[in-house]
Write a structure and sequence with these properties.
It is a single chain. By secondary structure, this protein is α/β, with parallel strands linked by helices. Among the domains are: 150 residues, Rossmann fold (3-Layer(aba) Sandwich), CATH 3.40.50.300; 153 residues; 248 residues, Ribosomal Protein S5, domain 2. 48% of the residues lie in helices and 15% in strands. Strands 22-23-21-20-25-28-29 form a seven-stranded mixed beta sheet, with helices on both faces. The two termini are 33 Å apart. About 1% of the residues have low confidence.
């Protein structure tokens, strides 16, 4: 005996036609076309949390309060960041200019000097003019009469004194009967006779022994005097060189000091400039010969080339490298770095090739994006930054030290490099803004202990916003602004209503609008194409509909192939009749640019045993963890509901038939439970009904995702085989608010050709699927006889008795 359920149960659970979608009433718009909204400002909408966080993050200046904008792609993060930061930056002061100058004491340690915005380039020009004037003035003073006279006087004084010394030495030598001669080897003492003439060889040999001895003794005395003379001569020569050098330095100083003092007075309040000018003055005095541009005629070949190379180096010795120039900026700088390599962010050294080697100097230091953004803001995509690990680690070090250092990328890797340049670091005052996904944010938060120290402001972008009149009008303003910006045709009110409906479907909630604006802008562009092709001045509702239809068609090849396989019978799906232990489940396939639903045959077999529910897909390594969890929940439900007289000696096998890929998710757990209950009760299930929904251990139905795609997937399968009026889909009651079905599905429901039921419990689903009463336990704890759950319990009791009897035997 079975208890038939009253027909009213079917109607009570049906979802009303008006609940299948929330269509926007375009007549509520206070305009006919969006070109009437050109005066309305388009701004970010539906992101109040993100806007407040952004304002906080840009306003607070404390250390570590950099921003990370997080959210799915297409929510307007980058566009909003650009516009908001540019808006804030306009009202802020322009940052400092920076230059690098030569460190005359340590050439590998260039010195950084800052200037108010716009003053670095004038300083560079003034320094270049100063060097030209110094070069001219030095040439002038060294070709002038005063220098020449003083130099001649020093030389004359030296020569006179040396001549006087020589005369005294010669006089002494004559008294000793010697004549002195200066040769390349030194001073030679030559003995002379009483007539003052040098001895001939024969004469000298004829001299007596006593005379020879006398000459030898006198030679010793004279050599002492000669040695003394030589030492004094060398000392006088050194003294002359010192005097000449001092004369040259005084002459150079006399020439350049007034020129340098002019700049010193101009920059008297700039200590770093004064220090540089002092060092420059000292260096020029010491190296004034480098201003001598006359070619060295005595040098040739390799020596000449080497001298030319050194001279070219000297040409830049007093240059000023304008490293950062903010002269043309209004407000704080805003830099968008799309390729955050190490060199692009932190600057680099350029090199020149010379004689088989590469050389660099302070004039070849080039700034990076962080230098250009110093005093303002830099915006970087987190994924791009993390694809360059050196950049990420160096960025954290910069935020930690508060200094920007320019180092070779090879040095960053720990390798030795030839440049050896260590420019003076530049202090930073910079706000770093990263833009990324939730996955990147959570990974950095979990695995990088420094991340939260340096990025304390999370700007969280939502994927949806409330669908209310205010937001719909702002949506309209956004559409109008985009159409104007991209030179697209404006939309009629009806077309805009269709766009809003599409946005609601993207959000998967009748009460919401999607904030994934890139999806909307793509439809605007494509609808404009179809309007243009039709020769329409405006984008009409049919153009939006055609754009959506064509978009789905372009991406739906795989869906069409699956439909063909079902229609041909290659994939076995039943859409009419009844079957025990067999039910139509629903799944969603995401192929990247397109998501669609398809029916899946789920079968269950039950028998006496002790293995419990055997998931064939899991045993074949085709079941994901969520799907496996759902089946364990089924075991909990069955044991909790029916194991009143002891453990259930049940073995059940269940599988997604003809599924050869990974199965995951728990949205089919209620469907699988229906198949098991049907098998246990031996009660057939209507094959024209598909089911989706998860279930908990108490038999309560829980919501799932992709409800629209699932319903439409089964609807198209039924329509291809012919709608009977008995077909439909059972969904969780919580998913009714997610319904935004296509018009063809709604029309079929309206005509009574297709139905959608929303249920709260397993019992409600059983009654719709079987046409029988599910059954509720009475006061005695028993299910009504003939009810589906009563039949299940009776079958389980039989299993228990049979199992006990087997054990006993």
């Amino acid at each position: 005996m079975v208890n038939q359920v009253k027909a009213t149960v079917y109607e009570e659970k049906k979802v009303a036609v008006e609940q299948l979608a929330m269509r926007y009433d375009y007549t509520l718009f206070p305009f006919k076309t969006t070109d009437e909204l050109n005066g309305i400002r388009s701004e970010i909408i539906g992101q109040d949390r993100a806007v407040k966080a952004m304002e906080f993050g840009l306003s607070i200046k404390n250390e570590g309060y950099n921003l990370f904008l997080v959210g799915p792609s297409g929510t307007g993060k980058t566009t909003y960041a650009r516009s908001k930061v540019l808006e804030v930056a306009k009202s802020e002061a322009s940052p400092l200019d920076w230059v690098y100058v030569n460190n005359f004491q340590h050439a590998d340690r260039p010195i950084a000097i800052s200037f108010p915005a716009g003053e670095a380039t004038p300083f560079q020009k003034k320094m270049a003019e100063l060097i030209r004037e110094i070069e001219s003035e030095i040439e002038k003073v060294f070709s002038g009469k005063q220098y020449e006279q003083e130099k001649v006087q020093l030389l004359q004084n030296h020569d006179d004194f040396m001549n006087e010394k020589w005369d005294l030495l010669e006089e002494f030598a004559l008294k000793q009967s010697f004549h002195l001669e200066q040769t390349e080897q030194g001073i030679m003492a030559i003995p002379i006779d009483e007539h003052g003439e040098p001895y001939e060889d024969d004469e000298y040999r004829k001299l007596s022994q006593e005379k020879h001895q006398e000459i030898i003794e006198k030679t010793k005395i004279l050599n002492k005097e000669v040695t003394t003379f030589s030492r004094e001569s060398q000392a006088l020569e050194r003294d002359l060189k010192k005097q000449l050098k001092n004369l040259e330095e005084q002459t150079v100083l006399y020439a350049i000091q007034p020129l340098i003092d002019v700049l010193k007075r101009e920059y008297k309040h700039h200590a770093e400039v004064i220090a540089h000018l002092d060092a420059l003055e000292k260096d020029i005095v010491e190296r004034w010969e480098s201003f001598d541009n006359e070619p060295n005629e005595e040098a040739d070949g390799l020596m000449s080339l080497l001298m030319d190379r050194d001279q070219k180096r000297e040409e830049h010795r007093y240059d000023v490298n304008v490293f950062i120039d903010n002269s043309e900026k209004t407000g704080a700088p805003v830099i968008f770095e799309s390729n955050p390599t190490y060199s692009n962010l932190f600057g680099k050294f350029e090199y020149k090739s010379a004689f088989g080697t590469v050389v660099t100097d302070f004039t070849m230091i080039k700034s990076g994006a962080l230098h250009q953004a110093n005093g303002g803001y830099i915006i970087i995509q987190a994924a791009d930054l993390l694809s360059h690990p050196l950049s990420w680690h160096a960025l954290k070090r910069m935020l930690k030290t508060g200094e920007l250092r320019i180092e070779s990328m090879l040095e960053e890797t720990g390798l030795n490099v030839a440049s050896g340049m260590k420019p003076e670091p530049i202090p930073i005052q910079l706000k770093v803004i990263l833009i990324g996904t939730y996955e990147i944010y959570h990974l950095l938060s979990q695995y990088d202990e420094d991340f939260r120290k340096f990025f304390k402001v999370k700007v969280d972008f939502d994927t949806e916003m409330a669908r209310n009149e205010e937001h719909c009008l702002k949506y309209a303003a956004f559409v109008a602004s985009y159409c104007k910006k991209e030179n697209l045709r404006h939309l009629t009110g009806q077309a805009l209503g269709k766009v809003i409906d599409y946005s609601t479907r993207l959000s998967n909630d009748q009460r919401k609008l999607s904030t994934c604006f890139h999806e909307i802008t793509e439809i605007l562009v494509e609808a404009n194409y179809w309007a243009e092709k039709a020769g329409s001045d405006y984008v009409e509702a049919e153009h939006v509909g055609l754009a959506l239809q064509e978009r789905f068609y372009r991406s739906s090849l795989i869906e069409e192939k699956i439909k063909e396989s079902i229609e041909e019978g290659t994939i076995l799906i039943s859409t009419d009749g009844e079957a025990v232990g067999q039910i139509n489940g629903l799944s969603v396939l995401d192929i990247g640019d397109y998501t669609f639903g398809q029916p899946n045959k789920i079968t269950a077999r039950t028998f006496i045993g002790s293995k419990g529910i055997v998931n064939i897909d899991r045993e074949s390594s085709l079941s994901g963890p969520l799907h496996s969890k759902g089946l364990l929940i089924l075991s909990g439900y069955l044991q909790g509901e029916f194991a009143k007289n002891g453990p259930i000696p049940l073995s059940a096998s269940i599988t997604f038939e003809q599924s050869y890929g990974m199965v995951d998710g728990d949205s089919a757990s209620s469907t699988e439970l229906y198949a098991i209950l049907s098998s246990l009760a031996n009660v057939p299930i209507r094959q024209g009904i598909a089911v989706t929904g998860s279930v908990n251990q108490l038999g309560e139905i829980q919501p799932i995702g992709g409800v629209n795609e699932k319903i439409e997937g089964f609807f198209y399968t039924c329509r291809a085989r012919g709608l009977t009026g008995e077909q439909g889909v059972i969904i969780p009651w919580q998913n009714v608010k997610n319904l935004m079905l296509r018009n063809e599905v709604i029309e079929a429901v309206k005509q009574g050709e297709f139905s959608i039921w929303a249920i709260k419990t397993i019992q409600e689903g059983i009654e719709i699927l079987t046409g029988l009463e599910a059954g509720e336990r009475n006061e005695k704890g028993e299910f009504p006889k003939g009810s589906v759950l009563g039949l299940v319990e009776a079958r389980i009791d039989e299993m228990i008795q049979s199992f006990r009897q087997r054990k006993k035997n």
